[in-house]
Amino acid sequence: MLILTDIEGTTSAIAFVKDTLFPFAEAALDGFLDARGAEPEVAAILAEVPGPDPRATLRDWMARDVKATPLKSLQGLIWRAGFEDGRLRGHLWPDVAPCLSAWHAAGHGLAVFSSGSVEAQRLLFGHSVAGDLRPLFRGFFDTRTGPKRDAAAYAAIAAALAEAPAGMLFLSDVAEELDAAAAAGLRTCQLVRAEDGTQPSGRHPEAADFPAVARRFGLPLPPG
Ligand SMILES: [Mg+2]
Known about the structure:
This protein has helices at about 15-35, 40-45, 55-65, 70-85, 95-105, 120-125, 150-160, 175-185, 210-215, and strands at about 1-5, 110-115, 140, 170, 185-190, 205. By secondary structure, it is an alpha/beta fold. It has 2 domains: about 1-15 and about 90-215, Rossmann fold (3-Layer(aba) Sandwich); about 15-85, Transcription Termination Factor Rho, Rna-binding Domain, Chain A, Domain 1 (Orthogonal Bundle), CATH 1.10.720.60. The chain has a 6-stranded parallel beta sheet, sandwiched between helices. α7 crosses α8 (about 175-185).
């Protein structure tokens, strides 16, 4: 079986982005611009920020959670620096890495489908609380492949991985994403994590954590 997994609310706390990543970027903004504002990649982003004082505009966007492209680009660079120098670690619920490792060791394929960019996915799993998990995965997919609530995205992922949809299991906390995966022929399981306050939809098999997924779908459990 190939297990395709969502990140936020499935492998990782929904609050990680809001409570860790966004405040980190806000706190690190001035130091990052002081150190690297003259680098061509950073200067090009700053040139896209309107107003007489780009820092003031960026701070205003952050305060109001404006999804402006220059801000998203800059946050991506700040997060990359933070992951690479160890100030940030990608959150995973403690049950996740042992199960992913056990499933991989037993020959099951693993892949990620998240609305976060593929680069952000690779940073989170490459610098996770459980170490570098990137070698476990056969593929990383984001919304460039298609919207998560669109069945065509799951068909495209199956094709990209050369897997039959019926041989794939999609894990997510969001019922509408699972509906789309089921419409494409994938098996589905809703992660209903109490810590994230997930509400069960009643439309898909449910599991409170990854060991519960393993028991439900006949996947191996971690040793011990
Ligand atoms: Mg999710």
